[in-house]
Amino acid sequence: QVQLVESGGDSVQAGGSLRLSCEVSGYISVSYCMAWFRQAPGKEREGVAAIDNDGSTSYTDSVKGRFTISYDNAKNTLYLQANNLKPEDTATYYCASNLQPWFCYSGTWRRRPDDMTYWGKGTQVTVSS
Q: Which of 1, 11, 32, 104 could tie 126 with a disulfide, CB 3.0–4.6 Å?
């Protein structure tokens, strides 16, 4: 059974940092597109960052230069290092995966989030001003 379990969410002040983790279990794949999404109350789900098995990354404009996505193959864990957090980053953060690496190309992962195969249950990030 495939499971994605997020952790690392917390309440921080603006300017602070967090590292979110997403532990993947139940399968091991050498090909993938993995991503972080977030959803704030009353807002649509938003793609934040994605990484494929070659290590290519992409980010939504609002987090470029502040967030870094990475994947540790040895630990089967996806990370999101979030620095210089802003109140508008407040949301529940979800990790998701698709076994097709091309899904990370050209922003497909952002346009078609419902086609991500597996999802975690989320971790809450709250940033106060």
A: 11
Cβ 113 vs Cβ 50: under 8 Å? no
Q: Going by C-beta distance under 8 Å and a sequence separation of 6 or more, which residues neighbour residue 39?
A: 45, 46, 91, 92, 94
**Residue 12: its H or E element:** strand 11-13
Across 81-100, average pLDDT: 96
Nearest C-alpha neighbor of 126 from the set 28, 14, 10, 18? 10
Q: Measured between alpha carbons, how far is residue 106 from residues 8, 48, 56, 59, 88 in Å?
A: 29, 14, 11, 11, 25
